[in-house]
Amino acid sequence: MALVNCPNCSKKISSLAKSCDHCHIELSDMDTEQRLNMKRMKKIEQSQKLMNQSMVAMLLFCAGIGSMFWGEPEPGSMQYNLATGAGVIGFVWYLVNRVRMIILKRK
Ligand SMILES: [Zn+2]
C-alpha cells in the first residue's frame, strides 16, 4: 500500500482506496490514464484561476495608479486613500498570484 495524491483534491490517500476520504470522488472506476488526465485538467483550471486573479489585481493596481495620476486627489482625502489602497493591494495581490503560479508550475 502506498500513499498517492488524490487527482481531484490533491490530498494524500491510499493507492488502494476506492474513493477519496476528503472529497469523496469515486476512484475505483478510473484507470491511471484517467487519473493523470484529471490531475492535468485540475492544474490547468488552477492556473487559469490564478491568471484571472492576477488580471483583476493588475486592473486594481492600474485603477489605483490611474486615479492618483489623473484624479490628483488631495493627500489625506478619501479618494487619495482609496487610490493608494487599491494600488498597494493590487500590487501585492499580483505578486502573490505570480508566486503561486510559479509554485504550481514546479509541482
Ligand atoms: Zn480527493
| Low-confidence parts | none
Largest sheet, spatial ordering of strands: 1-2
Distance between the termini: 23 Å
Q: Count the domains.
A: 2
Helicity range of the residues? 55-70%
Secondary-structure element order, N to C: EEHH
Number of helices: 2
| Count of distinct strands | 2
Largest sheet: 2 strands, antiparallel
The backbone outline, from C-alpha atoms, is rod-shaped
List the ligand species: zinc ion
Backbone structural class: mainly alpha
Rg from C-alpha positions?
A: 21 Å
Strand content: 5-15%
**What is the overall pLDDT average?**
91
Secondary structure blueprint with pairings:
Blueprint: E1 3-5, E2 12-14, H1 32-71, H2 78-106
Antiparallel strand pairs: 1-2
The structure holds zinc ion (ZN).
Characterize the structure shown.
This protein has a two-stranded antiparallel ribbon with strand order 1-2. The model has no long low-confidence stretch (mean pLDDT about 90). The chain is rod-shaped. The longest helix is centred in the middle third of the chain and has 40 residues, at about 30-70. It has helices at about 30-70, 80-105; strands spanning about 5, 10-15. It folds into two domains: about 1-30, no CATH class; about 40-105. It has about 110 residues and is mostly helical. Zinc ion (ZN) binds near residues 8, 9, 11, 22 and 25. Zinc ion (ZN) binds near residues 8, 9, 20, 22 and 25.
